[in-house]
Amino acid sequence: MAIMTNRSSDTDLFVFEDYNQRIAIAIILCIIFIVGAIGNTLVITAVGLSRKLRSSTNWLVVNLGCSDLLTCLSLPFNVVALLSRDGWPLPGWICAANSAVILVCLGASVMTLALIAYNRCSFGSGTSLCWVGPTGILLRVQGMLAGYVTSHFRLV
């Protein structure tokens, strides 16, 4: 016979109790910030300066780079929050704006990836049958994920 226990872990918030864990996550976020900011800036600059790279797919890649760059630029605020021992040290509106930027850019990234997949499929096959098969399933899943992310998370 199984013993049932009353666990409230499903409703508890996850908190980093160990400050060393916070430092490790902060270092990882700093590395992502540096590499992401440099890489996405180079992608945007390359497509902007080179006429050979100006295609419809590459403009979608620029859109993806812009949303990822904004996401990377919001990571230092998360590092500040992680390393603060007394909670969020900045005004509350910065926390809300940072959350909004991350969620909007996440939705934009997912939708841009879906558009790139559709663009590549339709130009590669010459038909509009891209909504059928594995690519169609991928596009639908990405669309549902973007809808879920943008509608189920609170900003404040």
From TrEMBL:
InterPro entries: GPCR_Rhodpsn, GPCR_Rhodpsn_7TM. Coiled coil: none annotated. It is found in: Cell membrane. Residues 39-120 form the G-protein coupled receptors family 1 profile domain. It is a multi-pass membrane protein. The chain crosses the membrane at residues 23-49, 61-84, 90-118. Keywords: Cell membrane, G-protein coupled receptor, Membrane, Receptor, Transducer, Transmembrane, Transmembrane helix. It holds the Pfam family 7tm_1. GO terms for molecular function: G protein-coupled receptor activity. GO terms for biological process: G protein-coupled receptor signaling pathway. One of its GO terms (cellular component) is plasma membrane. This is G-protein coupled receptors family 1 profile domain-containing protein.
